[in-house]
Amino acid sequence: MAQRLEDVVCHHTSITIAWGVMVMLLLFSACSGRKKELGAAITERDSLPVLDTRGITTLVSDSGITRYRILTEEWLVFDRKSPPYWAFEKGIYLEKFDTLFQVEASIKADTAYFYNKEELWKLIGHVDIKNLKGERFNTELLYWDQRREKVYSDRFIRIEQPDRIITGRGFESNQQMTVYTIHKPEGIFYLDEEATRADSVRTDSVN
């Protein structure tokens, strides 16, 4: 009888320990899940810029050589975003220099974002670019991949050359904007200077 009672007590103790272990595991699992939720939460620091600069002109170097000049009303740097980026939401004017410090191209845009890890610019709204040949490019969205040294867009593009205007959709170029392709050309409009001059003389003679 004593032996049987001892067996019952041992069996009961084993069940109690087993339940205790299960409860601890469940509590540990719940706590672990709670920690993960807290870890994924966005803190105020994540949404704030680490740098907020207003009304600046700055030169940017690459490998010790001055490559760019940036003029902007507002420059915000978000280092905790994924991916991190610079924001120029009040407009930007950017010049790109060659090794002789000559301006290869100038760029204006209403808004710009630079993803520094990818070395990628995203230019938005009234993007206006001029190259060394005097050509002018206009579009509403343009990407500039510095790593691949390419400029591209899938939107409408207008290119003004000295003697003609070319329009189309989809565009790709080298970053000097001197060798480029329009994927879907829509029109070519020639600028007839002689006809324009003749119309001007005719109008003056009437007045």
Care to describe what's here?
- This protein is an alpha+beta fold and 207 residues long.
- Helices cover 28% and strands 50% of the residues.
- It is built from three helices and eleven strands, in the order H-H-E-E-E-E-E-E-E-E-E-E-E-H.
- The protein has a six-stranded antiparallel barrel.
- A hairpin with a 5-residue loop joins strand 10 and strand 11.
- The N terminus and C terminus are likely disordered.
List the helices and strands and how they pair.
Blueprint: H1 2-40, H2 44-47, E1 51-62, E2 65-78, E3 85-88, E4 92-97, E5 103-109, E6 111-115, E7 120-131, E8 136-145, E9 150-160, E10 164-174, E11 180-190, H3 193-206
Antiparallel strand pairs: 1-2, 2-3, 2-4, 3-6, 4-5, 5-7, 6-7, 7-8, 8-9, 9-10, 10-11
Strand content: over 45%
So how many helices? 3
How many angstroms does the end-to-end distance come to? 132 Å
Helix amount, in percent? 25-40%
Question: SSE order, as H and E?
Answer: HHEEEEEEEEEEEH
Mean pLDDT, to the nearest integer, reads 78
Rg on CA atoms, Å: 32 Å
The name CATH uses for the topology of the largest domain is lipopolysaccharide transport protein A fold
CATH class of the largest domain: Mainly Beta
Low-confidence stretches: 1-40, 195-207
Indicate the structural class.
alpha+beta
Number of DSSP strand runs: 11
CATH architecture classification name of the largest domain: Sandwich
| Major beta-sheet overview | 6 strands, antiparallel, barrel
Q: Please give the order of strands in the largest beta sheet.
A: 2-3-6-7-5-4
Number of domains: 2
